[in-house]
Amino acid sequence: MRARCVVLDIGGVLEITPATGWQQDWERRLGLPVGTVDRRLGEVWRAGSTGAIDEEGVRARVAAELGLDAPRVDAFMTDLWAEYLGSPNEELIACVRDLRPHCRLGILSNSFVGARERETEAYRFDELVEEIVYSHEVGVCKPDPAAYALVCARLEVRPEDCLFVDDVAANVDAAREAGMRGHLFEDNARTIARISTHLGTAAA
Predict the structure, then answer these.
(1) 48-91 tens-digit pLDDT
(2) Which of 2, 28, 99, 196 has the most C-beta neighbours closer than 10 Å?
(3) Range of the domain at 28
(4) Of 48, 53, 58, whose CA–CA distance to 112 is shortest?
């Protein structure tokens, strides 16, 4: 349990995920007030993040809440996943790939049902790290302390030996409270330097 470890978030860190405005586009298309999609589907988003609903359930709720037929549900979900998956952060992914022989590597992601299949197909994160903890598979989202404990247990590392990288400050703060070292992702240069410091020195 003394191995050095790096655990990373996906969206906004390993994936570049700028807002595409897809929900607003659908609201305009359907003649709905701004914010309607989130208001009507907020419960679905929450359920999908903890695995309380499956993909067919998501589709059924989208159809019912927005009055969409099957082809338009397909188009809606395509737009959802396009923003969710974003594009690969190639520089950081290359850095993490080079770390594989030198430390334990994991991912801790607040995810949505269906994410593993799509991210595996698009980015092969399963080959990049040893363990991926998806909230929709384990039923626990960051910043719940149980999420951090779970990823450390799966990687067989002590929290204090693990650096956690996320683009959400509350998640980084929670990791520190759980005993991990934390780094708020703002850009690749500072993140790569912080990882190097973590792996190269006992103090961080």
Answers:
(1) 999 999 999 999 999 999 999 999 999 999 999 999 999 999 99
(2) 99
(3) 22-85
(4) 48
